[in-house]
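Consider the record:
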Amino acid sequence: MNMNDVPVVADIRKEWDWVKVGIKEILIDQPQLTYRAEDVYAECVSGDATLFILEKNFAITTIYLDKYTNDKIFLGWLTWGKNMQNCHRLVNFFEQVARDCGCAYLEGRTSIDRLGEYYLENGWELETRVFRRKLNQHTEK
């Protein structure tokens, strides 16, 4: 990958065949996620999320408003790729996109420990982790 290569906004309809494969891999790795690949497609088609691609890597992003502070937050909702050796450059790219969109924060979420370690080792701060338990699965000890 050349230093000039940056992700570009893409049409999910044109890229769906290979992007769907990545989304399904993410959903298999993180079975607690409640959406389907088709939901991600719909969010992109509706304009509520944006697909960025670089070679055969993708990021699906969305911007949401913190309802208490009114800060805009740029969320890297889903990222996937076969060659993620240049993560630092990609984070820098998305930081600039977030600034250009008037966002106060860049956000990433994961339940995968090695990705959490990456965030912490590269200047991200852990603010919260979300754990859930279905009530019908709890047993008293």
Summary: The chain has a mean pLDDT of 87.
